[in-house]
Amino acid sequence: MTGGQAVTTVHGRCCPTAVYEAGLRSVAGRLWIRHTDGRRESLPVDRWRGGVKPGDAFLLRRCNGPTLDVGCGPGRLAAALTVRGIPALGIDVAPFAVELTRRAGAVALRRDVFGRLPGEGRWAALVLADGNIGIGGDPARLLSRTTELLAPTGRALVELEPPGRPTGAHLIRLEGPDGRVSRAFPWAFVGVEEIAHLAAGAGLRIMEIWRSKGRCFAALGS
Description:
Elements: E1 9-10, E2 13-14, H1 16-25, E3 32-35, E4 40-42, H2 45-48, H3 56-61, E5 67-70, H4 76-83, E6 88-92, H5 95-103, E7 107-110, E8 123-128, H6 139-149, E9 150-160, E10 168-175, E11 185-189, H7 195-201, E12 205-212, E13 215-221
Parallel strand pairs: 5-6, 5-8, 6-7, 8-9
Antiparallel strand pairs: 1-2, 3-4, 3-10, 9-13, 10-11, 12-13
């Protein structure tokens, strides 16, 4: 839904992709989550855009082979890996995010992680940064899908909520810089304390947990 195409609405609400793309396009990078309890939380659009951000370097160092960046957004991680000579593919459901990733110099496709993807079973690393462990609102299902995508010795690199942050699966809405509000959709927030249990359910184990620049990460492997 780029280039002036009509915005899809569902029961009077915009689809989440349209509101997300509006946030990516906005100069100020303004985008919010509206929780069911009424809380409104600002999303770090400026961190998603542009070059490598604080905390990214330690994540990128752990990508030692062909890497799938799930929910790549504007593509800063896929682009950084490409510059370093590491084969990387970004996937995102938002057409404008895919376009931005390509502009940044990386390869990207408009794909759903639960759909058919190139290189299934052969990726050395799979990145779920910027809260993308929450995609679909079912992290157990997403981690099980991850095991199908990774090579036998591959690693999932997952960004997590820090201790003390609210976690769990919820219906949320996106609010954009132009005042539009999306329909509700499922998302999950997964904390450091929960990842070992979720990983075990998918046949994965914790290889490493680290913190960098106020962000929390885990490396999962079989």
